Amino acid sequence: MTDPVSNKTVSIVIVSHSADVARGAGEMVRQMVGEEVAVAVCGGNPDGGLGTDVAAVMAAIKSVWSEKGVAVLVDLGGAETNSEMAIEMLGPGRAEHVVICNAPIVEGAVMAATEAAGGSDLETVRETAEDFQA
Amino acid sequence: MSDETLIRNLIARTCDTIATHADELGELDRAIGDGDHGLSMSRGFDAIAAVADEIAGVDLGPALQKAGMTLVMKVGGASGPLYGSGLMAMGKAVAEGSDPGAMLEAGVGAVKARGKSEAGAKTMLDVLVPVASALAAGGGIAEIRAAAAEGLEATRNMLATKGRAAFLGKRSIGHLDPGARSSVILIEAVCDVLEGK
Predict the structure, then answer these.
(1) B102-106 average pLDDT score
(2) B194 min Cα distance to partner chain A (Å)
(3) Is A17 an active-site residue?
(4) How many structural domains does chain B have?
(5) Domain ranges of chain A
(6) What digits encode the pLDDT tens for the residues A37-58?
(7) Fewer C-beta within 10 Å: chain B N or C terminus?
(8) Pairing relationship of beta strands A98-101 and A11-16 according to DSSP bridges
(9) Measured between alpha carbons, how far is B94 from B39 in angstroms, rounded to an integer?
C-alpha cells in the first residue's frame, strides 16, 4: 500500500454498493472541495457486482492514510458492516483513527471533506457530516 | 473422527447444501431484501471450497477461523462479516479449549456484536440464539434441529427491525428471513455430518 499521502488533513473514504455511485460521489467531492483532501472510493462486491468488498475497503483506507484520521461514508447496511470489519482488521494503532459517519453518502462526503479541508480533527469532521440537514 | 476428516466433511456438506439452496435463498431475499443472499453465500462457500485443503490441514480451531476469514473477504454483503465473525469467534473458542456449548455461545455473541442486534429482529439470530440455548441446555442433535426449525418459522410473522428488510416495515411480515433460512441450512448440514449421514 502507498505511504501516507497527507498528515495535514483528515482523509475521506466513500464505500457504496455501486462502483458508479462511489466514483460519482468522489467526483462531487473533488469538484466542490478540490485536491487538498485525499479521497478514496470503492464500490462493488469481490466479483464486481453490487455489494461491498472488505479487502477493497481496507485498501481504500490505506491508500489515503492520514495520521489525522480517515472518515468513512457508506450507503446501505452491508457497506457499513463490511466497513466496520475492514476497520477492525486494520488493527490497533490504525483502527481507532478511522470512523464511519452516520450521514447520507454524497452529502456526508462533501460536508466531511469541506470540514477536513480546514484542518479540523476527525471528531469535528464526523460531527459536521452527521449534522448535515438537507 | 479426526479433525481433518471432520473438517473435510463439514466443508463438503456445507458447500454442497449452499449450492443446492442458492436459488431458494435468492427467492427469499428478493421478497424482503436485495435478492443477493443466494449469490453471496455461494460466492463465500465456493471460496471456502477452493481453499479446502488449506483449511483441512490445520486443527479445528484455526480451520474455523480460516473459513470465517474467507467468508469475510469473499461474500461481499453483510452476511460475510456476520457469518465470518461468528466462525472466527467459534474457532478462537475451540483453540482455547471451549466445549461445543461455549464455542457456539462465543460465535452467536460475535454475530450479535457485528450486527448490533439480538433475537427478535427477524435475522439469523432468531435461529442461532435458540440453537445455542438448546445446546447449552444439554440438547442433542434432534433438539438442535428442532430449535433451528422453530426459530426459522418464528421469523415469518416478525417485523424486521434490522437489515435490509427493515426498510419494508410491516411489509416484511409474512416472509421467512433469508439469513435465518441459510442458518438452518448450515446447521442441518453440520448435524448431518455429526450424525454420520
Answers:
(1) 97
(2) 31
(3) yes
(4) 1
(5) 11-129
(6) 999 999 999 888 999 999 999 9
(7) C
(8) unpaired
(9) 29
Classify A74 as helix, strand or coil: strand
| B100-115 and A77-90 helices, crossing angle to 10° | 110
Using a CB–CB cutoff of 8 Å, tell me whether B112 touches chain A.
Answer: no
Query: 3-state class of A75 per DSSP?
Result: coil
What gap in Å lies between CA B166 and CA B68, rounded to an integer?
26
Contact yes or no for B77 and A52 at CB 8 A? yes
Question: Domain containing B149: what range?
Answer: 3-194
If you search the block for the grid coordinates 457499513, which residue do you land on? A80
- Interface predicted TM-score of the whole assembly (ipTM), two decimals: 0.89
The answer to whether the CB atoms of B72 and A85 lie below 8 A apart is yes
Per the CB < 8 Å rule, is B78 touching A53?
no
Q: Is A51 helix (H, G, I), strand (E, B) or coil?
A: coil
Assess contact for B108 and B129: CB atoms under 8 A: yes
Phi then psi for residue A22, to 5 deg, are -60, -45
CATH number at residue B127: 1.25.40.340
Which positions 85-104 of B are in contact with A (Cβ < 8 Å)? 85
CB environment B22-40: b (16+ within 10 A), e (fewer): bebbbebbebbbbbbbbbb
Query: Does this model's pTM top 0.90?
Result: yes
